[in-house]
Amino acid sequence: PAAGSALAGGEAAGGGDAATSASGAQGGGEAKPKRVRKKKKPKFVEGGGSSVYVCGLPEGEEAAALSAEVAESFKVAGVLKTDPASGQPRVKIYCAPGGTSKGDALVTFLKAESVPLAVTLRDGFEMRDGAALKVQPARFEMRGEALQQQARSKDDAQIARKKQRRFEQKALAEWDDSQLPAGASATIVVLLGLFDTSEADCADAAFYSNLREDVRVECGKAGAIEKVTIFEGSEQGAAAVRFKSGDDAQRCVAMMREKSFGGSQVKCELYDGVTDYRAKALREAAAASSGGKSGADVEAQEAQLESFAQWLEADSTDDEIDPEAGGD
């Protein structure tokens, strides 16, 4: 308050000098002191915003190395906010007096929408064998001056904000989803490597029926499923899962990247809208029925792919499972 009074007095005096000079030219009058507006202090927000609180981390480890490991594990849920000074992901490892980790941390994302996804994908996740993480949305409590940010000069604050915006814009550009398939294709997930050619050669109806149900159960953890398609005899061991929403499809891709299926690692990606995953014999039969020569003619091949994409995005057929029925 004393500094504020001195500032107000100084400005008033300066204003008085200017007014006196002006009044000398205009014939007199007293100058009015300038009004000094006080800056409002930022309000404390109890909610965690775009942060999650993580516990169950290893204890007694060096904070910098553990911070990098946590950032790598949580980037699957979205872009992490960056520190404007260091440019590193904003992961705060809580440390004991000795400077080593206590077993908990605060992870801050650029978007608040990443918080529920981080809880879904990382609550119960074993970052290291035998140690499951506990992840929940962060909540802050006011504890006096310790939580107040240190004041920066106006110029330093502007430089820091510009630098942070550059980091965030670069991160968002790398996370850009504009290249994802549009329309119905954005809700379809393709799984590759579910079975190999030797399994396909001796597979019967029961094998594909059980596989279809396993896919439905596992992928159903990401959201509501409309259709499951197993491409019987596919050389790529492929299956397609159509979700009701694109967000659920993307969540499935993120979940299945880290899981094995039937003892083998599967590849999971969003359907590109053009690739035909059926067995070679079926593709050749489709080409023959359309008058083409196994897709050798460009126009014929494009027509076949368009037909396949429309079939995949259409309503369920007898070859696909009804999620509500719970099996064949």
What does this structure look like?
There is one protein chain. The protein is an alpha+beta fold and 328 residues long. 38% of the residues lie in helices and 18% in strands. It contains 9 helices and 13 strands. The strands form 4 sheets. A 5-stranded antiparallel beta sheet has the order 12-7-9-8-13, with helices on one face. Strands 2-3-1-6 form a 4-stranded antiparallel beta sheet, covered by helices on one side. A hairpin with a 2-residue loop joins strand 4 and strand 5. The chain is elongated, with a radius of gyration of 30 Å.
SSE diagram, text form:
Elements: H1 2-26, E1 47-55, H2 63-74, E2 91-95, E3 101-108, H3 114-122, E4 126-128, E5 131-132, E6 134-139, H4 154-174, E7 188-192, H5 197-202, H6 205-219, E8 225-230, E9 239-243, H7 246-256, E10 260-261, E11 264-265, E12 267-270, H8 280-289, H9 298-313, E13 320-321
Antiparallel strand pairs: 1-3, 1-6, 2-3, 4-5, 7-9, 7-12, 8-9, 8-13, 10-11
Give the terminus-to-terminus CA distance: 77 Å
Compute the number of strand runs.
Answer: 13
Uncertain segments: 1-26, 293-298, 316-328
Give the helix tally.
9
Residue-averaged pLDDT, rounded?
75
Overall geometry: elongated
Order of helices and strands: HEHEEHEEEHEHHEEHEEEHHE
Biggest sheet layout: 5 strands, antiparallel
Compute the gyration radius: what is it? 30 Å
Strand order of the largest sheet: 12-7-9-8-13
Beta-sheet strand percentage? 15-25%
Class of secondary structure makeup = alpha+beta
Helix content: 25-40%
